[in-house]
Amino acid sequence: MTPRFAPFKIVTDLTNALLAVEKALAAASIETSLADLVKIRASQINGCAFCVHMHVTAAKAHGETDMRLFLLDTWRESPLFTDRERAALAWTESLTKIAKTGASDADYALVKSQFTEVEIATLSVMIGQINTWNRLQVAARAVHPVQPAAAAA
Question: What CA–CA distances, in Å, run from 24 to 27, 87, 90, 136?
Answer without folding.
Answer: 5, 22, 23, 20
